[in-house]
Amino acid sequence: MMNLRKITILLFLSTFCLVSNCTVRYVKASPEFEKSLTQFKRVIVILDSTSSIGLSESGMAKSMSEQYLAHHKEFIVYPNPKNKGADCSGLPGRAQGIFMLKLTEESRKSDIRLSALGQLKNCSTNTVLWEALASSTYSTGGEDEQSLRKTYTQKFGESVAPKAVPYYHLLRALFDELTGPVLNEAEQDEKIEIESQS
């Protein structure tokens, strides 16, 4: 009887997620992920070269990701303007790993379907510590969050104007599933110094 109840609940939740267009599809974390955050705190963001989005959108998504990881998850994010290091070679500064992001985009009349696969990899152990997939459809015609739209349009061009808010919401949903490290005072100083150089 208890197994039937569990199956019914799981079936309901799965159906609810499909019907309500849930954003985060799955999250996987290695058993040592939480423990590794005591030492693993420095990353670079890399946009997967197989992502099916434009150059302006790539720059915008990478910028959003770097800011979210640094400001909301407290990682020390080293700049990576040339998008190098996917194989963990030549990491800048004291970076210990990479956050790899693969994005796909399908534009329709007044909406956009976005998908983001994120992986956090420790380069010293060559281990994927965390992975998640987020996917959803968003309207591109809304007038909400004008300051966000304006910020990214000024930085990456008019072509990203209708996409800035959808990209932000998708990436925020993805990153909200990620646990960040706790920085000590010296690490906070390092983070401030790195951010001041960008």
From TrEMBL:
Domain of life: Bacteria
UniProt cross-references to InterPro entries, sorted A to Z: Lipo_MXAN_6521
Name this protein carries in UniProt: Lipoprotein
Organism: Leptospira fainei serovar Hurstbridge str. BUT 6
